[in-house]
Amino acid sequence: MATFAFLFPSSKAKLRIPTTVNYASIRYRLSEAPDGHTILLTSKDQTGRLEALLSDAELSFFRQMQEKDLRQVCFPRSEGMVWVRILQGVEEPALSLEDARLAGAELLPQLNTYKIDEVSIHNAGLSAEQLLAFTEGLALSSYQFIRHFSEPDKKAGSLHTIYLSGPEIQPEAVAELDNLVDAVCTARDLVNEPHGFLNAVQLADAVKTIGQASGFSVEILGKEKIETLKMGGLLAVNKASTVPPRFCVLEWQPASAKNAKPIVLIGKGVVYDTGGLSLKTPEGMEYMKCDMAGAASVIGALSAAARNQLPIHVVGLIPATDNAVNDAALSPGDVIRMYSGTTVEVVNTDAEGRLILADALHYAKKYEPELAIDLATLTGAAIRALGNQAICYMGTAPATTKKALEESGRCTYERLVELPLWREYGEELKSNIADLKNLGTGNAGMITAGKFLEHFTNYPWLHLDIAGPAYLRSANGYRTREGTGVGVRLLYHFLKNYASPEN
Known about the structure:
With 503 residues, the chain is an alpha/beta fold.
C-alpha cells in the first residue's frame, strides 16, 4: 500500500541551496498559522483542525487520500510546499514517540529533494511530546559527517533550520531539544572522526573546547600525572603508542544541584584499537575508530546537562589512549598492577577497554558517588547477544535505579537488557599468577567483562556495553550510518528525571 500522495507535483517552487551544515538546528517561531514550507502534523481523530489551514481543493484531495489510508499528502503552493502527515496513535507511549521520530526521519529525503533549507512544523492535533519527537527524528536524521570530502557543499543536504509553531509549543522545550540534538551530533562527530584526526591528545583538546562551549569544567591529566597516580591499566594499554595517554575529568556542578554527592559517568576512550599483540583481523579493525563511543556518550551527556542547566552534579571520567602494536606493546601473559593495587594477568591484549575503565572506576571512589555509570564498546559478545537494537547492562545499583534507567531507555528508545552478575561468572577470572585475569573463557563474555569491572567499585554502579548500537554499517531511521551517539539521549533523560523533585 502506498504511503504518500502529491497534488500537482509539477508545480515545484524554485528554492535556494543553503550553506553546508552538519545537521538541522531547531528554533521556536511565535506563529498561530503556518507559513513558507510547512509540515502539518495531525492524528486520525484530529484532522478537523486542518480545515482552517488548507484550501477547499487541498482539503478535498486530502479527504480522498484519507479514504485510501495514506499517511502523508504534499501540496505545492506559491509560497512553499506543505506536507500533511497523520501519525498513527498507539497505546504504548514509548512506541508512539518512536513512531513520531521515525516519521520525521522518513520525511527528510523529500525535503532534500526539493532543496528546502527551512521548514516550519505546525501542530494540528498531536500532543506536544509527539511533535517534539517528530522534530527530534527529523533533526537527527539530517546529520551528516562530510568534512573530509573535497567539496563538502556538494554532499550536504539542504535542510538547516526547523521552526516549531503552535499554541502547545513552549520555547524552553524547543531550546532544550535543540541542545540535546547538538550534544548527540557532537558525540557522532567524535566517533566518526578518523584516528588520524583524533588521537588521545586531540580527544582531550576536543573535550576542553566542548566544555568551554557548553559550560562544564575540564581538567586534563597528562602522562606524568597518570604515572604519578600509577594508573597501571591505562599506562599498559598505552605502552606501544607514540601518543601519550590522557585522563579527562569533566564536571558540571550547578549551585542548585539536587544530589549531595555526584553521579559519575565513565566512558571508554580507546581512540583506535588494533587489538594489540592479540591482533584483530583487517575486517575487525576497519571501524575501530568507534572504540571511544563510550567517551563520546559521556561528553555529549555532560554537554546536554550543562547547556540545559540540569540541577544535578555530574562528573565525567575519560581514560584516553589508542591500543597500538610495536616491540614495546603489552604482551599476553604479562602481569600489570592497576591503580587500585590489584594485579592483573593479561591473557588477551584485545580486552584492553576494561583495563583503562578499571583505573577510572577506582579514581571515581574519591567522589563517593551516589551512582557511577560506565559506557563502553566493550565486547563482541554484547553484539552477538542483542545485535544493534539494545544495550547490555548489569551492575550493583539498587533495583529502583535500574528501573529508572530502563524507563529512560524505553522513552528514548535506547533500550536496555539487564544481565546477571552472579558470583560464578567471577570464577572464570581467577588467575594462577595474579589477582585477576582480564578475560574469561569466552562464554558470556559481556558478563565476565562486567565482573572484572565490578572488582574496582565500592559504590552503586552500572555498566553499559554499547557495542551493538554505537556504530551502524547502514542507517536505521534517525540513527545515521556509523556513529549514532547512543547513550547521550538515554543519560540525559535519566539525569533529568533523577534531578526532578518527584524523585
